[in-house]
Write a structure and sequence with these properties.
GO molecular function: ABC-type maltose transporter activity
Subcellular location: Cell inner membrane; Cell membrane
Strand content: 5-15%
Number of strands: 15
CATH class of the largest domain: Mainly Alpha
Largest sheet: 8 strands, mixed
Number of helices: 17
CATH topology of the largest domain: MetI-like fold
Protein name: Maltose/maltodextrin transport system permease protein
Subunit structure: The complex is composed of two ATP-binding proteins (MalK), two transmembrane proteins (MalG and MalF) and a solute-binding protein (MalE).
Main location: membrane
Oligomer: single chain
């Protein structure tokens, strides 16, 4: 190797050191985060960080994978922020995950064993006396003073002995600041009674509600009943089938889907909501497309004056953030003080119940959504109308065709093929238009007689949201099963969109 080649290789190696150092720092930070998440009992998210750290180390640390450096960030983002949430949500649909089954089994056992019943005969107030860096617990009614305690949150045992009142006692607010240490402290009275912190103000003898016999069996101290862990339901249960919350997460297979299909309290409202979702999405697309196309045709009229002003005014609903427009419409349709009802009452003596009548509520939602959606359709239509050859229209006029006949026979057939993929995409978007429902009606009025929260104006997305986050039991597993159904439907619509785009491209391709 010549001196020039050696110098070139040396310069290239020196230029790699900053990249390698940065790669090492990022990898170490991710590894530390993965280890920390594992310690916090979040192994899944820790595994994601570990995989990301390995990928960064391999791709950016070796010249062999130089080409992969340009696509690795995008691929990693898609896997972490799109693929993983979808897969995780689908997995939840096959579990019993809910507000009653949030914990792991070991944590469930800890919670049950920590429960206790306070003996009111032994309950008495307490105070805390400082002694250097340590503290003593003073029980004024029985005249007992504890041995010095650290009260640092660790488990501590101290004996109580008769004593005079301490010279200095902490203020109540300062004693409350030590509640974690007080809660972990156990005091033994001279007669052998074990006292524990029973609240912010008292110590008392606390009888544990449950005793652990083995990892899968607990005994309830009040009646001696045995509780056995049921791996199918994720609860400790008695022989009579009584479930003791909280439970833990377990895989239940297709049970959530069976509930959707067999439970009338779930199947009935869900079918109704599905039908309304399809009508809502389809009606919005049809009316928004029709109104937008009509306005675009009017704005194309060559004799129309002030076209620029009309275009700006008609595009304004598209420029204003959607959530602001929705909240404004919520005020306009207010049944008691809304401007629309005030006008209708003054002119016709009518005061429609927009939010309590199911039919009117759905009509209101369609009106608002069409208002939000027509500017987009109008802009598209204005562009597509420009592409229609003027010679075709002139030829139709010479043949004696009316303007309406020319539009439906020549203009519409030419702009519909490129419009079709966009209409399908708009249908898929409105199929999951969660923000509109939550801000305008919150899914209400409710459907009576259901086993789950469901409303007349709910679409599948808002129905799933209420089921997961607004229901008192927060049935995440059932919501995940419904989300999978929505995913399949939207996936089918997206595939139809792809097919429509491919066919439209084939028609426009030169022969």
């Amino acid at each position: 190797m010549t001196a020039l080649d050696q110098a070139h290789d040396g310069g290239r190696s020196a230029a790699q050191w900053p990249r390698l150092a940065l790669t090492g720092l990022v990898t170490l930070a991710l590894l530390w985060g993965a280890f920390h998440l594992y310690q916090l009992q979040q192994p899944l998210f820790g595994l994601i960080l570990l995989a990301l750290a390995c990928g960064i180390a391999v791709v950016f640390g070796s010249n062999r994978f130089y080409g992969a450096r340009f696509i690795f960030p995008g691929v990693a983002a898609v896997l972490i922020f799109i693929a993983f949430p979808v897969i995780y949500t689908i997995w939840i649909g096959f579990t019993n995950y809910s507000s009653f089954n949030l914990l792991s089994k070991p944590r469930t056992v800890e919670v049950l064993l920590s429960r206790g019943t306070v003996d009111p005969d032994t309950e008495e107030p307490f105070a805390v006396a400082p002694e250097g860096d340590l503290y003593r617990v003073w029980l004024p009614e029985s005249g007992l003073l504890s041995e010095p305690l650290a009260l640092d949150g660790s488990e501590e045992n101290a004996a109580l002995a008769p004593a005079d009142a301490p010279a200095a006692l902490l203020e109540r607010r300062d004693a409350i600041a030590l509640r974690s240490g007080l809660g972990a402290a156990t005091l033994t009275a001279p007669d052998g009674t074990v006292l524990m912190n029973a609240g912010l103000r008292t110590f008392a003898s606390v009888q544990p509600d449950y005793e652990l016999l083995d990892p899968d069996t607990l005994r309830r101290t009040s009646d001696g009943a045995l509780l056995t862990a049921n791996p199918r339901t994720g609860f400790f249960e008695t022989e009579a089938g009584e479930r003791v919350p909280p439970g833990w997460r377990v895989t239940v297979g297709w049970q959530n889907f069976e509930r959707i299909l067999t439970n009338e309290g779930i199947r009935g409202p869900m079918v109704s909501i599905f039908v309304w979702t399809v009508l809502f999405a389809g009606g919005t697309v049809v009316f928004a497309f029709g109104l937008g196309l009509l306005l675009a045709v009017i704005l194309q009229w060559e004799h129309l004056r002030f076209k620029a002003v009309y275009r700006v005014l008609l595009i304004l609903p598209y420029a204003v953030p959607a959530f602001i427009s929705i909240l404004v419409f919520r005020g306009i349709f207010n049944q008691n003080f809304g401007e629309l009802n005030l006008i209708l009452e003054a002119l016709f003596g009518l005061r429609p119940h927009w939010f309590t009548d199911a039919t009117l509520a759905r009509v209101m939602i369609l009106i608002v959504n069409v208002w939000l959606g027509y500017p987009y359709m109008m802009l598209l239509a204005m562009g597509f109308l420009q592409a229609v050859p003027a010679d075709h229209k002139k030829a139709a006029a010479l043949e004696g065709a009316s303007s309406v006949r020319t539009f439906f026979s020549i203009t519409l057939p030419q702009i519909l093929p490129p419009f079709l993929p966009l209409l399908i995409a708009a249908f898929a978007f409105n199929f999951n238009n969660l923000m509109l429902i939550l801000l305008l009606t919150r899914g209400q009025p409710d459907i009576p007689g259901t086993a789950i929260p469901a409303g007349k104006t709910d679409i599948l997305a808002s129905f799933t949201y209420r089921l997961a986050f607004n229901d008192s039991s927060q049935q995440f597993g059932l919501a995940g099963a419904i989300t999978l159904i929505i995913f399949v439907i939207v996936g089918a619509v997206s595939y139809a969109n792809f097919v429509a785009m491919r066919r439209a491209a084939a028609r426009r391709a030169p022969q």
